[in-house]
């Protein structure tokens, strides 16, 4: 990047209004982000009801085979409340609460994994935007101190824990020397909104709308903060993969994970959805601003990530929301797909 462009980038970044978050909504192509690997901790069982809750698939679609529905949950439509009248981030337009009407739909139980995405790439020779651009954003603790010093100018100005790093993409999610060994079942990251749309399309699916995502997140409950209720840690257990400790230097990993966790780790509600909050942010089909006809408009993302902590990014609530431009990619941003019922 030329000096002039770098300066313009930093200027643009500085001009962003600082708000209390992890800075990952500023990871536009002209700025920075991150992510990682993890050891498996004891599996957290976040269930309120027994499995096989979704046996009604068969009643709903008697002709469908189990395989066709495999990995998806049927989310009942109807009228549902989304948003909240008690917003934590007013600028995010979490409020007001409103009623939406939805048709029944299916939603992936899991975030799309690296193994899933690899299948897609193998079948289609798809090249992600991060691969075409030649870089993506990773979190600072994925870089060695000497790398951090070297890349100092490629940090996001008001979120200096994000670095734009050449050669980082979904195949090298944690730095140019990293690979997917052991991460097959972790969520794919460094995928732009357009990459996510391409994947879902290939799979015969689509991205969920924000309303669909949020209704699914709420698991049939009304006005609760989290998919399972209002308490962050019922039974003193961790129900999601977020940050414990001081941000950005002291992640105590009490939930078992410093970075991403496998997509099937935290079962969070009666719809049998895993990691719907936490782990990685998830793209939705919605524009951040209705009618935005820009070249790379902002799209709504939901659910927060492993980098979120209540002190600065209390966005792992169902009503919370944030945004990135369509071409953005980062180490804490992935997706799951939906399908019409
Ligand atoms: Ca964690
Ligand atoms: Ca998630």
From TrEMBL:
<dbReference type="GO" id="GO:0005783">
    <property type="term" value="C:endoplasmic reticulum"/>
</dbReference>
<dbReference type="InterPro" id="IPR042095">
    <property type="entry name" value="SUMF_sf"/>
</dbReference>
<dbReference type="InterPro" id="IPR051043">
    <property type="entry name" value="Sulfatase_Mod_Factor_Kinase"/>
</dbReference>
<feature type="signal peptide">
    <location>
        <begin position="1"/>
        <end position="20"/>
    </location>
</feature>
<comment type="similarity">
    <text>Belongs to the sulfatase-modifying factor family.</text>
</comment>
<keyword id="KW-0732">Signal</keyword>
<dbReference type="InterPro" id="IPR016187">
    <property type="entry name" value="CTDL_fold"/>
</dbReference>
<dbReference type="Pfam" id="PF03781">
    <property type="entry name" value="FGE-sulfatase"/>
</dbReference>
<dbReference type="GO" id="GO:0120147">
    <property type="term" value="F:formylglycine-generating oxidase activity"/>
</dbReference>
<feature type="domain" description="Sulfatase-modifying factor enzyme-like">
    <location>
        <begin position="69"/>
        <end position="339"/>
    </location>
</feature>
<dbReference type="InterPro" id="IPR005532">
    <property type="entry name" value="SUMF_dom"/>
</dbReference>
<protein>
    <submittedName>
        <fullName>Formylglycine-generating enzyme</fullName>
    </submittedName>
</protein>
